[in-house]
Amino acid sequence: MMRAVLASLLAVLLTGACAPAVAPRPPSPAVAVSDPVLTEELMLHQPCTTDEAATLAGTGDEGDLRAAACYLYLAQSAEERGEQLEMARRGLDPAQQVARRRPESALAHYLAAYLTGLVAEADPLRGLAGVRAIEEAALRARELNPHLDEGGPDRMLGELYLQAPGPPISVGDPEKAVKHFRSAVDVAPGFAGNRLGLAEALLAMEEPSSACTELHAYFTAVPTPGQRESEWRRAVDLLGALCTNGM
Q1: Among 108, 142, 199, 214, which is most exposed with the fewest C-beta within 10 angstroms?
Q2: pLDDT value for 246
């Protein structure tokens, strides 16, 4: 989910280098979301158009949330970094506005965290500030609704703590990563990406046996790459690392 985002942030934090080109992302499965701001469920990660997003923006809290969700899809689908940055920026403003006006909205905080990451990926000068903003918004979303987007807030935090450098440079902490990925698995055990993240975090904590157990569960759920090739390749690479460690 957030892997390309956090990899870019990591590069910025360590080197200050320019961000890499936008990496292809597997399509996220559309998921129904409920929220105090919504009168009807919203389908997160559902395809939409820029015209639909522009029509929704500025029509009130619910319209702004739906616009932000649409811009998230468009930013994730972008093939060029400039397009990703434009779509993410358009979505970030309404998401942040709703988060301020309606602090009880888990979806608003989650979208703000997600879109902040996509802006930082496309605009690496915002990398360090982006890490803290992602953490704060994701923690708030988790507090309000840990079930959102198949354990999305915990999955986002797990990626953040796994990929970011540790203190004093940033917030990286493999132990926290394991904690949040375990929570994501508890919330949505059928979502394979949660188990893959947990396996990676466990390996970072030098717990290869436990990592192998989670990786086995991942391949049971995703035996072939299908449309999730980049995620599946991550799992294959992790399997190679486990084999190198004698598993």
Answers
A1: 214
A2: 53
Indicate whether 192 and 143 sit together in one domain. no
* Single-letter code of the amino acid located at 4: A
Residues 127 and 232 in one domain: no
Give the domain range for residue 128.
Answer: 1-152+163-171
How much of the chain is helix, strand and coil, in % rounded to 5? 70, 0, 30
User: What backbone phi and psi angles, to 5 degrees, belong to 171?
Assistant: -105, 5
Q: Is 177 inside a domain boundary?
A: no
The total of structural domains in the chain comes to 2
Is residue 192 domain-shared with residue 167, that is, in the same domain? no
pTM of the model: 0.86
Strands 31-33 and 42-44: antiparallel
Question: What is the per-residue pLDDT across 59-88, written as a single tens digit (0 to 9) for each?
Answer: 999 999 999 999 999 999 998 999 999 999
Alpha-carbon torsion angle 153, 120, 99, 45, nearest 10: -60
